[in-house]
Amino acid sequence: MRDTCDMIVKDVQIVGGAGGGSVESDLSTILIRKGVIAEIRNGGTRNHGLQSDCRIVEGAGRKAIPGLIDVHVHLRDPGFPHKEDIESGCRAAAAGGYTTICCMPNTDPTIDTADVVRYIDRKGMAASPVRLFAVGAMTMGQRGTVAARIGEMHAADTRCRALTGHGIAGISEDGKSLLDEELMVTVLRTAKALGLPVMDHTEDSALAGGCINEGTVSRSLGVRGIPAEAETRIVERDIRLARETGARIHLQHISAARSVEAIRRAKEDLPGLTAETAPHYFSLTEDVVPRMGAAAKMNPPLRTERDRLAVIEGLADGTIDLIATDHAPHAAREKAQTLAEAPFGVPGLETGFAVSYSTLVIPGILTLRELIDRMSRRPAELIGLNGGRIEAGLPADIVIIEENEPFAIAGGRFASKGKITPFEGMTVRGRIICTICDGVLCYDCNQRACATPKEDL
Ligand SMILES: [Zn+2]
How far is the CA of 24 from the centre of ligand 1 (A)? Predict the structure, then answer.
C-alpha cells in the first residue's frame, strides 16, 4: 500500500491529542496532507508497512504536542525594527514551538485602525507560516482619550478573520491601563457587542513610575519600586467593570499574590473572566535583579517568592487560565543601560516552553498534558481559534519536543533580535526539536536529525 501525503511524523508519542490519557503511552504515526492532519494511526510505522516519498519527521523517543499559542507578544513592527520585526519575531515564535501569536498594539503607528491591522497581516503572511494575529488598541494612539476604530479593525479582512471570525484577536491597551473609567466602559461595551476579548494590562500609573518591585531589593539598590498594589487596584476595578458590562476580560501578565486571590474569588460568579501569567513570574523573583540588572527588568516586575508561589498555585488550580510570554524584545545597547534607564521587557518566545516545562512539569506541579492545555488549548479558546489539539481534520500544527536532555539557555542563539534574557545560562529541559505549522516545517533544530526527505519507511 502506498499513501499519498506531504509529511509523516513517525513513531511519536502524542500529548494533547483528542484521545484520553492512555493514548499517550502509545506510539503514533501522523499523516499530514495539504496542511491538515489527515490521519493519526496508532502504532509505530513498521506495523503499517507504510511507504511514502513524502517528508519524514522522526519522532522516535520524542513527543508531539500541539503548536503553542502565545496571546501576548510584542513584535515592535511597525516602528522599532531595531528591537524586532515581523520576520524575526515569527522566526523566534517557530523556534519556540509557537504556531500562532498575537501581537500587541504598542507599535508606531499604534494598531488602532484597519490599515495597520492589514499591514501586520500581510507582512505576517509573507514572512512565515506562523499565524500572526494583530491585537487592536483600545484608544487612538493609546493616548487614552478617544476610542480606537475597533469596529473597523474587527471587520478587516485578515487571516485572523478567516480563522476566528474577527479581524483582530482582541483589543488591548497593553503597556498601560485605560484609566478613564467612562471610556473604558464604552470600549468594553463595543468589545462585547463584537464578541472580542479584552486583553487587559492592569497597572495604575499613579502608583507606577518605578523600575522594579517595591520591596527589600528596590530599597537595597536605592531605586524606585513599583508596588504590587499598582496591579491589584486595576485588577479589582476591571473585575468590577466586567461584572457591570458583561465584557470578556482577560487579565494579562498577572504577577502578584493579591491579584491571584482577587481573580480566584471573582471566578466564583464570573466564569467568563480569564487570566494569564508569563514564565518569568513563576520561575524568578526580584532576588535575581541585583545579579541580572536590566536583563530582569520588565513590567509588571519580578516580585517576591510569596507572589511566585501564588502564581504557581493559581496555574495549578485553574485561577490563571494560561501562559503567555509577553515577549518584549529590546536591542542589547538599550538593555545595557542602568536599571532606571533601561526599557521594560524581555524576550520570551524562545524560552517560554522550556522554562515552563522545567519549573512546572519536572517538579510535578502540572503534567505535560496540563502544561499544553495552558499553552495551547486555552489560548486557542480565548481567541476563538479551532486548534490547540492534535486531531485529524485540524491544521497540522505540531511541535516535536525532547524532554530529557538538559541544555543551557543562551540568548546569543535566539532568532529574536532581543538577546538579553533573565534566563541566560539557566539549565532547563524541554527542547523544541521542530515546529510544523499548517503542515510546513518552519523550524528544525538540526536540519538533518529532524527531517529527512524521501525516505522509505
Ligand atoms: Zn503589559
Answer: 36
The conformation of residue 147, written as its DSSP 8-state character, comes to B
Cα–ligand 1 centroid distance for 251 (angstroms): 10
The residues annotated with a catalytic role in the active site are 326
Q: Do 217 and 211 form a contact (C-beta atoms < 8 A)? A: no
Interhelix angle 229-245/181-194, nearest 10 degrees = 50
The residue type at 161: R
Residue of 359, 380, 357 lying closest to 368 (CA atoms): 357
Distance between CA atoms of residues 411 and 314, nearest Å: 29
Q: What pLDDT, on the 0 to 100 scale, is given for residue 15?
A: 94
Q: What is the DSSP string of 71-132?
A: EEE---TTT-TTT--HHHHHHHHHHTTEEEEEE-S-SSS-S-SHHHHHHHHHHHHHH-SSEE
Instruction: Name the pLDDT band for 457 (thresholds 50, 70, 90).
Output: very low
Where exactly are the structural domains of the chain?
Answer: 67-383
Intra-chain end-to-end CA distance of the chain, in Å: 12
Q: Determine the distance separating the centroid of ligand 1 and the alpha carbon of 104, expressed in angstroms.
A: 9
**Those residues with Cβ within 8 angstroms of residue 175's Cβ, 6 or more apart along the chain or in another chain:** 104, 106, 142, 201
Containing 372, the helix (H) or strand (E) segment is helix 368-372
Q: Hunting for cell 487592536 — which residue is that?
A: 136
**Residue partners of 58: CB distance under 8 A and separation at least 6:** 10, 11, 449, 450, 451, 452
User: pLDDT band at 406, cuts 50/70/90?
Assistant: very high
CA of 414 to the centre of ligand 1 (A): 22
Cell numbers 496508532 correspond to 42
What's the fold here for domain 67-383?
A: TIM Barrel (3.20.20)
pLDDT at 407: 97
Rounded distance from Cα 403 to ligand 1 centre (Å): 30
Rounded to whole angstroms, how far apart are CA atoms 298 and 278? 11
SS3 63: strand
Q: Beta partners for 58?
A: 10
Q: SS3 of 275, please?
A: strand
The values of phi and psi at residue 137, to 5°, are: -75, 160
